[in-house]
Amino acid sequence: MTIPEQIITKIETYQTIIIHRHVNPDPDAIGSQVGLAEVLRNSYPDKTIYQVGSDTGNLDWLANAQAIDTAAYQGALVIVTDTANSPRISGADYQLGAELIKIDHHPNDDPYGDLNWVLPDASSTSEVIIDIVNNSEGRLQFNQAAARVLYAGIVGDTGRFMFNSTSPHTMTCAAQMMTFDIHHDQLNQKMNEITLEQAKLQGYLFDHLQVNVHQVAYLVVDQATQEQLHVEAQQVHSIVGTPGRLKGVLTWVIFVQQADGTYRVHFRSKGPVINELAKRHDGGGHPLASGARAANQAEIDTIVAELSALAVQYTQ
């Protein structure tokens, strides 16, 4: 029995299924989590299905989490989607279930759970969920609600199909979701939408972005800047991809100061593999898109120096 078949068998065994995703969710975290939840509600209407975690922030238009009592975990199956390592799971109660399943597309450096189904070559965890459903021999069934968020997950994690993880199969999965009349044009417009404050943040980026001789670009968005521009730390994510549009930028990093004074670190690259560097700073992710943490300015300086060394090695 394959692992996806084992996962479906586990799903059919349990009456209560609780689905988690990672903190600071992006469209794929929400898409894979809620997409799976909607598939299960559609396929097994007698089961109790929950989607849990922190608030979805400015993606609340896509879906929201549910608040549940810890008692619900008693004898429940817990599934975590799109979360590379256990510290990033949103909601510590995930450990209280009877069994735990991990479904992901990040490198499987932390194979937590009783069952793991991880496909690092997939464009997104939403794509992985779609494949599980398509290969279930009819035991699992899509509906419009599932298709809507799964499509959004693919669009989000492929950068609107720009990233090298986008395959012909990815496009087939997205096209399949579009057959459910999900108003993909409206979804795309909504995902492309930014506030006036975020637009001003884009201007701040171009005014303050530093690009060194190694084609490494970097920017620090501290708390004072966030207050001045009236943006929250989570909203800064809208500018993470912007430096990649600049000619002469090979790899880049954006440091976003959090309320506790530390920094959330966003790595992106057009070639140099950056996820091992992210791991050295309490993070991880994909070869060309990763996240990490920095404690202070000294660690910021260290990260920029290490990223520059990677760029030099890549171009030699």
TrEMBL record:
Residues 219-310 form the DHHA1 domain. One of its GO terms (molecular function) is nucleic acid binding. Residues 17-154 form the DDH domain. Pfam families: DHH (PF01368), DHHA1 (PF02272). This is Phosphoesterase, DHH family.
